[in-house]
UniProtKB/TrEMBL annotation:
UniProt superkingdom: Bacteria
Domain HTH lysR-type: 4-61
Family note: Belongs to the LysR transcriptional regulatory family.
UniProt key word NAD: no
InterPro entries: LysR_HTH_N, LysR_subst-bd, WH-like_DNA-bd_sf, WH_DNA-bd_sf
SUPFAM superfamilies: Periplasmic binding protein-like II (SSF53850), Winged helix' DNA-binding domain (SSF46785)
UniProt entry keywords in alphabetical sequence: DNA-binding, Transcription, Transcription regulation
Full protein name: LysR family transcriptional regulator
Signal sequence residues: none
Amino acid sequence: MDDVEVRELRYFRAVAEELNFSRAAERLGMAQPPLSRAIRLLERRLGVQLFERTSRHVSLTPAGAVLFAESAKALDAVTAAVRRTRRAAQRTPALVVTAKPGVATDLLRRIADVHPDPVDVRVSGFGEQTEMLRDGRADVAVLGCQGGTHHGLDVEVLFSEPRVAALPSDHELAGRAVLTCADFSGRPTPCWPLSSAADRAYWSGQDVTGGPVTPGPIVHDSAQLLETVALGQAVALLPASVAELRSRDDVVYRPVVDATPYSLALAWPAGARDPRIARFVRTATEVSEALPRPGAVPAG
């Protein structure tokens, strides 16, 4: 079998995502006949049929579904290699580190102030950090680590802290001194875009109870999350540090004694040999250990 070209994989993914050759060709900025020929050539080279085609319908075959899943990893790897190669060619290449706004970016600024290498801090949205690592837009990420696995990444936990419930100030649970995850059962909790089932269970406390998650409004940042809580549209589980940073009159915070702790971690591509990453991890660990944390519990 001849080698498959990156261009062919990009063509294939455009058709697989659109399930329409005309729309895929328009998206790629090319005519439809050359795209159709390229897909047929790819199928011949692979010796499999990738698409079921009729005059009205295009769908992936089982083989096509496998290539669709696997090709994403391959294209990310190629894109990452190109981006990191170009950064390495800069006169003083900076280590690109990403985190979502809040405690993580505050920590990054402290680290960058004392770190010996240039650091380029880039703010990203919920769930974007691992994608940025895999496609080469970032070298290191600061992210929440809820005990799940991060495939293809190495992870170093910096610290863990308890979580608290965020409730409307007039909520029926607001008068209690402490809560448990069972108190969240059946109550709507905010949903983050692109969150997995495990993420949703963790953020609703149902990873502890094993009960079903009751989805609430979709939110994109902690400020929007607290607005939904204040309006009585949801209750939420948050890291204790967020509660300290975001005090407001219409929201109260209560300890949740059995909630799975929140861990803040560094992540980077598995097997990376860049010595700057190792130096950054050392600096981050030293800075993190010196900072006070609300009700922190030992990592691990």
